[in-house]
Design a protein that fits this description.
Strand order of the largest sheet: 2-4-5-7-6
Structural class: alpha+beta
Shape: globular
Radius of gyration: 18 Å
Helix content: 40-55%
Distance between the termini: 40 Å
């Protein structure tokens, strides 16, 4: 029953990127678009397929309970840039700004794709509590032998009564799409690599997610 609910939610979420692909192909079929338009249609199609692939992977990770971690030396600034580029366009639609603060410019042993996905999920979740004009800051630093990512915002904050359950699957806010798996999956991804994620939030003052990853 649970798997069925998850699949139903994911299928609904698939409709938006599928619609974008259909619109792009329809425009290409109607004539010969100019080079700039053709390039933009190609970008839209590629981004839509990438989004669908990530949603499918989320579904597999959660329903199978298996997560194969592939850690290798990764550029931490590269991870941050990838995350910012991935979320920037959607945030701009909500009139929310994202800022990167690179406190650590070296490398760390990470599963690049999964850590990036975990950070993207957290950023996208945080938007639910940020009004137009808000700012999200993604920063990096080191503490001892650990690499630390921080995702902080100046939004409305998360209700205290809700904070203890925020990383549980299917716990969702009213404005969130899907069944509320994004933070549960992020936590699983981070812990599978020996890390941990913590939440600090105060209503009216904003929220900070702290992700600590071992560097050895």
């Amino acid at each position: 029953s649970t798997v069925g609910q998850i699949a139903h939610s994911r299928i609904r979420d698939f409709r938006a990127p599928m619609r974008q692909i259909l619109v792009a192909t329809d425009q290409m079929e109607k004539g010969n678009p100019d080079p700039d338009t053709q390039k933009q249609l190609a970008v839209t199609t590629r981004e839509s397929v990438t989004t669908m692939n990530k949603m499918a992977q989320d579904l597999l990770d959660f329903t199978t309970g298996e997560m194969r971690v592939n850690k290798m030396s990764c550029s931490v600034p590269g991870v941050v840039k990838y995350v910012v580029d991935a979320v920037k366009q959607d945030l701009e639609r909500d009139s929310v700004k994202i800022e990167a603060q690179q406190g650590y410019s070296g490398s760390a042993p990470l599963d690049y794709e999964r850590v990036s996905r975990a950070l993207i999920n957290i950023v996208n979740y945080a938007v639910n509590y940020i009004p137009p004009g808000g700012v999200i800051k993604l920063s990096t630093t080191t503490e001892g032998k650990n690499l630390v990512f921080k995702i902080s915002d100046n939004g409305n904050g998360i209700p205290k009564s809700f904070q203890d359950r925020i990383f549980e699957p299917f716990v969702r806010v009213a404005a969130e799409k899907g069944l509320g798996l994004s933070l549960a999956l992020s936590k699983r991804i981070i812990e599978a690599q020996g890390g941990k994620v913590q939440l600090e939030s105060e209503e009216g003052k904003g929220t900070t997610f702290t992700i600590t990853m071992p560097q050895s």
